[in-house]
Amino acid sequence: MELKEDLNPSDDLPLRSNTNHILVRHYVLDLDVHFDSRIISGSITLFLEPVETSGSTGISTIQTSGQTSPDGDFTLVLDCCDLTVSKVEELDVTSVLSSLDVLPDVSSRSSADVPLTRQTDLIRDLISMSCSQWRHKHQLLSLCSGAPGVQDGSSMRFNTDRWSLQVWKDGVTFPQQFPRALRICYETKPGGGSVRWTRDQDNRECVYTAGSPINNRALFPCQEPPVAMSTWQATVRAPSGCVVLMSGEEEALPTQDQDTSMFSVWRYYVTMAMPASTFTLAVGHWRQVTEEVSLTGELLSAIDYSGVDGSISCCHGDYPCRFTMQSAWSQRVIPHRVFSCDCLLHKAQMQVLPLLSRCLAAAHDVLGVHPFPRLDVLIVPSGFSSLGMASPHIIFLSQSVLSSGENSRSLCGSRICHEIAHSWFGLVIGARDWTEEWISEGFATCLEDIIWARAQQLSVQETAEQFELKALLRWRRLSDELQNSKEELQILRPNMEKTGEVRDSGSSTVKHALNPDKSFMQVHYLKGFFLLRFLSSHVGEQRFIEFFRLFVKTFHGQLILSQVRQRLFTETKLKELSRGSLRALHTTYRLQTQDAEVQHRWCELVVKHAYAQAYRDVEEFLIHHQAMGVYLYGELMVQEKPTQQALARRCLSLVQEEMDQSARRVVEEMVL
To answer: Which residue range or ranges hold the Peptidase M1 leukotriene A4 hydrolase/aminopeptidase C-terminal domain (predicted)?
Structure first.
């Protein structure tokens, strides 16, 4: 079976996974790194859960093109390319779990459920274990990943095409009947786009995930759409003498492989569900940079956060969240390490390590609790195509930030601040649609300046001068890109009103993701930066920082679209005018007697602040200035306040007979 290719321009990246039907909840990777052949081989175990659907039977009948096999069987579609898949098998987890009294009994099941096997019950209960039991849960998941294949006479069938791996089982027609635990045996290809095999600055072999436009689909088969949030754990065997760095919540200590002394084994895990694209791996002869001068007491001392609300109400999935841990609020500098090859150790020691501590402390002062418990920084080989890349628990830095002279500290420090900012904006809060990359890059660029100024301990005047200089340089860069690049690559939201939309199966495309020009452009960084700089200029830096903190508190652990940020900023910004201030404005300037333009601005403030005492002014404006009132109708409706919506309908009823027909149609569409 082969899926039909999407009829999209060649520079669009297809996301084929049918995430509206079934989701991967946890990955267990077991990988071997082979430098001689430049491949990574092993297996990945997927723990799956069908997506709940509505309907009288509780079962989705899924007839979407490309989601069934030629015989009509339900098909799991994973994003995959440049991989050689040798085997897919359903795991017999009952053989390893049924004898263990480790999972709670399920007292009842919905009558709408299809008949569930004991195996399905076990995996469902395992996936739903509380985050307070995460360590035990991971032990059980690891145990299950080593289970033998099911011996029921049936087998999993699979096929690959350019962008996906399709898996089905004869006779299984619905996702609710699909196996819940699969093991896929595979190996990467030397030219696969997700990892880069190269040599470091000491001419020693290494491999790392390079932040490719195709993300990790050439490292392991996965669900790439951002909505497919999952946890993972990984065991990596690499030649002894190599260091394996990875996204993981604890520092890994190598153990000797039981089969051969030539390989060491490294184990990592995460408990926070995140998109598979954030998985990061680096294997090489890295050395840890040692610290000559201990951190000052000022950096490690705790700030009094007695006024901080430690009992945050989280809206994300179940995981051990640092935002709810009182101890995390006072941890200005999280544990951190720096790695590089031998020849760069001294520069990394003198520049990166001391700056990293100060930048972490400054970021904490600006944004509050660090989302992740630790951080590694790796100086990657010279072929790295960016100045930096942030992933959970690990940052890649280019050697270009390390150079002689005092100016090197500015480049290095500001870049560190940019990547640290991504812990909040880009990782713990991500974009639901990858085309909205400005959400993370614009915010990180804006915060880079604020955090770096704090780390340098600049005066107010020095901070303002540094902000202006950087803004000027960025404006020149943006102007140059706008003049010398295709307009279609300059749009912040290329999907326009369709941003965030997917097909019935959950598949979609990332517009222009494969265009080679796009990877070298900064228009999304810079347009986003100037938009935020404009907003900051209207409310002031301190209030703008308060907006950042409120945003993190509200949306951490979630995926969002840009409309959410705009709405929250508007709501935050409007708090700057109290009812007393509005009353004083109205009385002092006699706004109801000013010209129509001034009255229009006054009515905007009334609507946005829900200042009910002046609703009469809005009604008078809509009746007597119909040519300028269309926008206000929209504002009254979009606030979603019943009183304001009733006001809009009442005003329309009073004037609709005399309104211009075109204006009336527009207003009726908004109001009715």
So the answer is: 537-671
AA letter at 473:
L
Task: Write the CB contacts of 114 (distance below 8 Å, at least 6 apart in sequence).
Answer: 58, 59, 174, 176, 177
Pair 186, 29: CB distance under 8 Å:
no
Is the per-residue pLDDT at 556 higher than 60? yes
| Burial class, 135, CB count within 10 angstroms (exposed 0-12 / middle 13-18 / buried 19+) | exposed
Q: How far apart are CA 197 and CA 195, in angstroms?
A: 7
Nearest-angstrom CA–CA distance, 505 and 435 = 19
From 226, 225, 274, 222, select the one nearest 247 (Cα to Cα): 274
Long-range contacts of 621-624 (CB under 8 A, 24+ apart): 621/596, 622/651, 622/655, 623/651, 623/654, 623/655
d(CA 338, CA 291): 10
Q: Report how far residue 534's alpha carbon sits from residue 322's, in angstroms, rounded to the nearest whole number.
A: 32
Task: Please give the single-letter amino acid code of residue 138.
Answer: H
Q: In the Cβ-directed half-sphere of 245, how many Cα atoms lie within 13 Å?
A: 28
- In angstroms, the CA 5 to CA 14 distance is 9
Exposed e or buried b per residue across 398-408, where buried means at least 16 C-beta atoms within 10 angstroms of its C-beta: bbebbeeeeeb
| C-beta of residue 329 within 8 angstroms of C-beta of residue 301 | no
Task: Say how far apart CA 181 and CA 67 lie, in whole Å.
Answer: 19
Contact 335, 249 (CB under 8 A): no
Q: Which of 167, 153, 5, 155 is nearest to 74 (CA)?
A: 167
* Residue 419 designated active-site: yes
pLDDT in tens, 463-492: 999 999 999 989 988 888 888 888 878 776
Torsion-angle region of residue 72: left (phi > 0), alpha (psi -120 to 50) or beta?
left
pTM here is: 0.79
Q: What is the DSSP string of 342-359?
A: GGGHHHIIIIIHHHHHHH
Which pairing describes strands 181-188 and 39-50: parallel, antiparallel, or unpaired? antiparallel
Instruction: Measure the CA–CA gap between 39 and 32, rounded to whole angstroms.
Output: 8
CA distances (Å), 266 to each of 215, 252, 254, 561, in order? Answer: 22, 6, 5, 37
CB atoms within 10 A of CB 465: 12
- Dump pLDDT digits (tens) for 413-428: 999 999 999 999 999 9
Q: Which of 419, 436, 437, 448 is catalytic?
A: 419
Query: Among 184-188, 449-453, 610-614, where is mean pLDDT lowest?
Result: 610-614
